[in-house]
Write a structure and sequence with these properties.
Rossmann fold, 23 helices, five-stranded parallel sheet, mainly alpha, DNA Cyclobutane Dipyrimidine Photolyase, subunit A, domain 3
């Protein structure tokens, strides 16, 4: 009996938020095909989205430059195309038809969700097999949260994937130079960015686990110590230059070999935040609407009709009259990074003191954060604004945070130079300076530095009165139960982290949100 004719296959590996070679399921799957090519699409929907900034694009381009060189070592060309995804895919398919589209799942903003649905329809019409692979603990199509933690653990404990092979392209593929920001119509970033790319990600991971993270618990709250004490992996996880599984397994190994109990405890705290990272992303995956509307609909109309442009502008410019708030905002705008407690304070101040709705403030912050991760970002914006219905209201005092986290005034003096000569006792609240002290400090409140945009006690009382009154209503209570059932954490059933092989594993106690709001972020 004659052999059946062999149907050649060609794979297109679509890179999105996974700009690496190691532990990359689509790349490994592409080895099964005789011919393959990589693709990254610079989509106008991304460039024109209200959460995108030149810093994001610059970081991605730097990652792509390194990725292209790494893939070339395996014989895989990487195309970088500009245009709507459907147009790019259709053009490539017409020029050199591919039979398989391979990519990672993406829990992205609304425009990417709409795009993926359109791509899925196109693939069905063209008889292209589109296979999507998971790369985090987020579960696509999850119906209920029960058992989610065990699934996360199983994914993270699975062996990492290694690209052991290379391609021999049947047809040479031209790879034009990467576009510049100017060619994309974007200005140069105003921020100083972290080093980009897979090698930078791995170096950052090694330096954290090998030393920087050994005092993690005590360094993450102050913006002074957090700059070095936090992992600084969040941009790399957001752009996928390192996999969550790689970070998890490296952390587990570091805990096992930690020289001291305190070091193991610090790294174990970090390891727990990996789980919370995916926990928050799962919320957006399960309910994409929370990017645009209140998680608890009982809060609709709470702030929407009270928008104050002047207050918003003062907050964006770091000129609210509250030094710790202003220092944090200016630092963020200059560096693209801020530790979680200070991020939470910025959102709290905007939401409660200034009574601004989280959507517009969230878009502004998304453009500042180099590590913008939609699932975490929008869940945290609502959590810190009090619109989830289930989380404790956390209203930060800017004065207390200055005294606690910047007791010597070093951070404030660095980022708010107008206050450089203000005596330390007045630095957290310069409006309390007598006129004679203002003259000596060469800082006149209301002239050299703005007076407080709102009165602290009055604004906080008004916010609490409105929110607590709403929370007592039957509608809000009933909806809180529904939100908890849909998105709340469950009894984890996870084993203690980093036990030696052969050790019997015991279930952990019920998982509950930590008192420290720094859950979910890996700054």
């Amino acid at each position: 009996m004659p052999a059946l004719p062999h149907r050649s296959t060609r794979a297109l590996v679509w890179f999105k938020r996974d700009l690496r070679v190691a532990d990359h399921a689509p790349l490994v799957a592409a080895l099964e095909h005789g011919d393959a090519v990589g693709l990254f699409i610079i989509e106008p929907e991304w460039l024109h989205s209200p959460e995108c900034s030149p810093s994001h694009v610059a970081f991605a381009l730097a990652c792509l430059g390194e990725l292209r060189e790494a893939l070339a070592c395996h014989g895989l060309p990487l195309l970088v195309r500009c245009g709507p995804a459907l147009e790019v895919l259709a053009g490539l398919h017409a020029a050199q038809p591919f039979t398989h589209l391979l990519s990672h799942e993406e829990t992205g903003p609304g425009w990417s969700y709409t795009r993926d649905r359109a791509v899925a329809r196109w693939c069905r019409e063209q008889e292209v097999a589109w296979q999507e692979f998971s790369q985090t603990g987020v579960v696509r199509g999850l119906r209920q949260r029960a058992g989610w933690a065990q699934r996360w653990q199983a994914r993270m404990d699975a062996p990492r994937l290694r690209l052991a092979g290379r391609w021999q392209a049947s047809t040479p593929v031209a790879q034009p130079p990467l576009p510049t920001l100017a060619e994309l119509g974007l200005p140069a970033p105003e921020q100083s960015l972290q080093p980009a790319g897979e090698q930078a990600a791995l170096q950052t991971l090694r330096s954290f686990l090998g030393g920087r993270g050994h005092d993690y618990r005590r360094t993450i709250s102050s913006p002074l110590t957090a700059e070095q004490g936090c992992s600084r992996l969040s941009p790399h996880l957001a752009f996928g230059t390192v996999s969550m599984r790689t970070v998890h397994q490296a952390t587990e190994q570091a805990i096992l070999h930690a020289p001291e109990r305190e070091t193991a405890s610090a790294l174990r705290a970090f390891g727990g935040r990996l789980r919370w990272h995916c926990h928050f992303m799962q919320k957006l995956e399960s309910e994409p609407e929370i990017e645009f509307r209140n998680m608890a609909r009982a809060y609709d109309g709470l702030r929407e009709n009270d928008w104050n442009p002047a207050r918003f502008e003062a907050w964006c410019q770091g000129r609210t009259g509250y030094p710790m708030v202003d220092a944090c905002m200016r630092s963020l705008k200059a560096t693209g990074w801020l530790n979680f407690r200070m991020r939470a304070m910025l959102v709290s101040f905007a939401s409660y003191h200034l009574w601004l709705h989280w959507r517009e403030t969230g878009l502004f912050l998304a453009r500042q954060f180099l590590d913008f991760e939609p699932g975490i970002h929008w869940c945290q914006m609502q959590m810190q604004s009090g619109t989830t219905g289930i989380n404790t209201l956390r209203i930060y005092s800017p004065v207390k945070q200055a005294l606690d986290q910047d007791p010597e005034g070093l951070f404030i003096r660095r980022w708010v130079p107008e206050l450089a000569a203000v005596p330390l006792p007045y630095l957290a609240q310069p409006w309390a300076m007598p006129a004679s002290v203002q003259a000596l400090a060469h800082c006149h409140i209301g002239h050299d530095y703005p007076a407080p945009v709102v009165d602290d006690k009055t604004a906080v009382k008004a916010a609490k009165d409105r929110l607590y009154a709403l929370r007592q209503t039957d509608t809000a209570r009933a909806e809180a139960d529904a939100v908890q059932a849909r998105h709340g954490s469950r009894r984890s059933g996870l084993p203690p982290t980093a036990q030696a092989p052969g050790t019997r594993r015991r279930p952990q106690p019920p998982s509950r949100p930590a008192a420290d709001p720094a859950q979910g972020r890996l700054f």
